[in-house]
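Work Package 3 (structural annotation) set out to generate three-dimensional models for the target panel prioritized at the project kickoff. During this period the team completed the workflow that converts sequence records into discrete structure tokens, so that structures can be stored uniformly alongside our sequence database. As a representative example, we reproduce one entry of 111 residues exactly as it appears in the project archive.
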Amino acid sequence: MLVDLSQAVGSYFSDVFLVKLSWVVLLGYCGQALFTMRFVVQWIASERAGRSVVPVAFWFFSIGGGLMLLGYALYRRDPVFIVGQAFGVFVYLRNLQFILRDRGAGAAPAM
């Protein structure tokens, strides 16, 4: 029984990670890697500052990963994934727009 379960699990993971490997799956992996890096960047910045910090790189990784995952979701025709990633990318872009606007306003000479 345990051997059968082990073989079934092995067969499942072989099918999911090897048999179904394609350029689209690789795109999804790259998107997920970028998306994960945003948390690594945020964690490192927070550790260095000794407080919670969200660096600008967090938003760039969010946008890059979100767009790649959106492309993957569109290819897979997954409506839940498409809506979630499209909304997320919109939020990431908007946050980056706020940051860049505020930086530009801070650098402008006072009149």
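The CA atoms of residues 16 and 32 lie 16 Å apart.
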